[in-house]
Amino acid sequence: MKSRNGKGRSNRRRLWIAAIATVSTALAITAFGIGPAQAVHDTGAFELDGNAVNGPAPGDDWDNVCHQVTKTAVTPLCTTAGDTNGATAVDWVSEPNLNATIFTGGGSKDPQDINQWAWKDGAGGLPDKDNLLHSFAARYSLPPSATCPSGTAATCELLYFGSDRLDNSGDAQQGFWFFQNSIALGSNSVGGGSGFTGVHRPGDLLVISDFSNGGTTSTITVYSWDPTCKKTGGTCGDANLRTLATSNNANCATAAAGDAFCGLVNANTITMPWPFTDKSGTPANGALNGEFYEGGVNLSQLGLSDKCFTSVASETRSSTSTTATLKDFILGQFGQCGSSLTTQSSVTGTTSIGTGSVPVSDSATVKVTGVSTWNGTVQFHLHGPIGSALETSTDIGTPVAVSNSTPTVASATANVTAAGDYCWNAHFHSTTTGVPDADDNGENECFTVSPVTPTLATTAGPDVVLGNPITDTADLGGTSNQPGTPAINPTTAGAPAGGSITFQLFGPSDTGCGPLVFTSSAVPVSGNGTYGPVSFTPTAIGTYHWTASYTPAATDPNNLATSHNSDCSDTNEDVVVTSVPSSMTSAQSFIPNDSATISAPAGGNLAGTVSFAVYENATCSGTTPLYSQNVAVSGTSPQTVGTTNTTKSTTATNVSWLVSYHSTNPAQRDIPATCFEKSTLTIDNDGTITGP
C-alpha cells in the first residue's frame, strides 16, 4: 500500500468496503489450463474498456467502486457516480504520498510467504513508472448462463482489479494478490524493514500482468498459492505457485469472446473520476496512455469460486518472472466472508404434552456472504425443560450437510416427554476456507410444552336408608404419561400418570356443601381408569354431597391437579339418606296356668303330688303336652297348689288340662288323671298399625 506517511496508511485502512448483492449478466473465457470459453470483459457486470468512468457499455466501472467506498468519508470522491450494481466485495485505496510502503529486503518475492516480506517508508530509488497511486478491485457473483458458464460451481464468480501509476515512461509489470487471510502492515522487524501480519493460505490468487506502454502487447499469468509446489516444473510456476492459466494475448480490447481473463491499459489520455496528478501534471485529473490498468478473471473456471478473499494487494515488479523484485505496493481490505444462521422450530408458542410425547424438529437456513460456493454442516441441539429437575441438553441427530445448493436443512425429529420450556439451537460448521462458523440468532427457537388437565368424572352410589353405607367412584381420563428418561428422546419410557384421588363427603345439607363428614384415604392412580368405590355410613338422614380431587405425583410435570363437584352443585353426586315408616301388628298369646285344691278332711295331713298337663285342644289328647308340671302338696286339708308357667304361651282356640293327684298318705286315696278343665279362647287382632 503506497502511503508516504502515517496519515496515508490510516486513510488506506479507512477507505475500503465490502458490499453484498447479486448481479445477473453473462460471461465467457478461454485460457491455458481451463475449460470452455468465458468472456470476462463483456459480461455486462463490469466495463473493461480502458477508462474508469461508467458508460456507455453496460455494467459498473471504477467510479462506482470509488463512490461506494468513499461516500462515507470526510471528503467523498466520485460524487457523480452511484454505488455498484451488486458487487459482493469492493476495494478502492488512495496513496497520495509518493514515498511510503515500498517493498524492501531479499525475501519480498511472490514465492515467499508473507511473513518473509518486508516494507519501509522513504526507501528511495523507486522508478516513477512503478509508483502506484490508487488500487481498486471488485467481485461479482452471477447466475450461470450461456454467456457466463460456471463449470461445476453453483455461480459464475468474477474478479476485477486495477491501478493507476505516477508515470507512463516504460512498460509496466504488475501483480495483484488476493488473500484469504487478512493481511496488514506490521511493525515487527524483517529483512531491514518492517514485516506484515498474516500469512498465505492455499488458494490465494496471484495475477501477474505485463503491458507495454502502448498496450499492444499483453501477457497475463494466473497462479494460486500451493505449498505442494516445491519447485518449477509441470504446472508449478515456482515454489508455492501453481500455474492456473496464462496467455500472451490477453488484451481486453482485442480479445475475442472466448477470453478466460484479460487486461488493458488506457490507449489515450483519459480523465480519472477521482483526484489524480501524474508526473507530467496532466490537467483535469488526466492520465496519459498506459498510466491506468484494469483486468479481470473468472474465478469459477479457475476452480476458485469457493474462495473468500479478505485482502488485496497491487504490486509493481521488475519483470513478470515469479522471482522478480517487488517494488511498490498498495494493500487494501477487500471483502470478508460472513455467515449467518437462521432457524425455525416446528413448534412455536405453546403445544400440549398430549399423551406424553411431542415430536418436534428444527430447520436451519445458512447464509454466506463473500463467496458463492460453500459447504459445511449444521448440528442441531435441543435444551429443556429449562429450569426443571429434568432439564437436559442434547444433540439431535448427527451433523447435517449444508451447502450453497442446499442452504436450508432440517433436523431429525426429537421426542419431548416432559412439559416445560425448550429452546433449539443450531451451529453451522464451515468446511470452506475463509467462511466462518455461525450460530443461530435465537429467534423462532423456543417453545413451551404445556401439561394436560385430566378429566375427572364421579358416580355416586344409590340413595340408602340410614344405617347403610353410601359410595362414590371416579373415572380419570385424558392423562399424560409421566416423563421418560431422559426427557428428550428417552431411552426409558415414562410411566402412566401417577398420584392419587381423594374423595370427600359433605352434608347433610339442602343448600351448599354443608359440613365435611368424611375424607377418604388417597386412592393410588396409574393412568386413565376407574377408581373406587369408597364408602361411608352416615349417622343422620339428609342429602349428602360427594366431591373428588386428583393430585398428580410430585415429580410429574405433565399432569395438572383437577377436581370435581368442589361446589357441590352436581346433583349426580348427591346421595339421600332416609328413614322408613314403622308398622305394628298385634298378635295376642296366652300363657296357660292351672291350680287345684286338694281336700281330705279325715285321714290326717295331706301329702302327695298334683300333676298338671295342658294341651292345645279340648280333649287332653296328644303325646306331648304344651306344658306340664308336678306340684307337691302337704299340710292340713284343704291345700291349693298351681302351676308356675312363664315361658309357654298359646294362641290356640281350645285349651284342656289333664290333672291328677298322687297321695303319699296311705289314709288318703289318689285321684286319677282326669281331663275335666277346658277353655275356649277368642283372639281378635285388629290388623297393622302404621306410624306417621
In this structure, how is the largest beta sheet organized? 7 strands, antiparallel
Mean pLDDT: 88
**Ends distance:** 121 Å
Q: What is the helix fraction of residues, given as a range?
A: under 10%
User: How does the helix and strand content classify structurally?
Assistant: mainly beta
Number of domains: 4
From the spread of the alpha carbons, the general shape counts as rod-shaped
* C-alpha-based Rg, rounded: 58 Å
Estimated share of beta-strand residues: 35-45%
Main β-sheet, spatial strand arrangement: 12-13-11-10-7-18-19
Number of DSSP helices?
2
- The number of strands is 48
The low-pLDDT segments are 1-38
Entry summary:
This protein has 692 residues and is an all-beta fold.
List key phrases describing it.
mainly beta, Immunoglobulin-like, 4 domains, seven-stranded antiparallel β-sheet, seven-stranded mixed β-sheet, 42% strand
Protein model, in words:
- By secondary structure, the chain is mainly beta.
- It has 4 domains: 6-333, no CATH class; 338-450, Immunoglobulin-like; 455-580, Sandwich (Immunoglobulin-like); 595-680.
- Helices cover 3% and strands 42% of the residues.
- The protein is built from 2 helices and 48 strands.
- The strands form 13 sheets. A 7-stranded antiparallel beta sheet has the order 12-13-11-10-7-18-19, with no helix packed on it.
- The longest helix has 9 residues, at 6-14.
- 46% of the residues are buried.
SSE blueprint and pairings:
Blueprint: H1 6-14, E1 16-17, H2 62-70, E2 89-94, E3 102-104, E4 118-120, E5 132-142, E6 156-165, E7 172-179, E8 184-190, E9 193-197, E10 205-211, E11 218-225, E12 236-238, E13 241-247, E14 261-265, E15 270-271, E16 286-287, E17 292-298, E18 311-317, E19 326-333, E20 338-345, E21 349-352, E22 358-360, E23 362-369, E24 375-384, E25 392-403, E26 408-410, E27 414-416, E28 420-430, E29 438-439, E30 446-450, E31 455-460, E32 464-465, E33 470-477, E34 500-506, E35 516-519, E36 523-524, E37 529-536, E38 542-551, E39 562-564, E40 574-578, E41 583-585, E42 595-598, E43 606-615, E44 627-635, E45 639-642, E46 654-663, E47 671-680, E48 688-690
Parallel strand pairs: 21-30, 32-40
Antiparallel strand pairs: 1-2, 2-5, 3-4, 5-6, 6-17, 7-10, 7-18, 8-9, 10-11, 11-13, 12-13, 14-17, 15-16, 18-19, 20-23, 22-27, 23-26, 24-25, 24-28, 28-29, 28-30, 31-33, 33-37, 34-35, 34-36, 34-38, 38-39, 38-40, 41-48, 42-45, 43-44, 43-46, 46-47
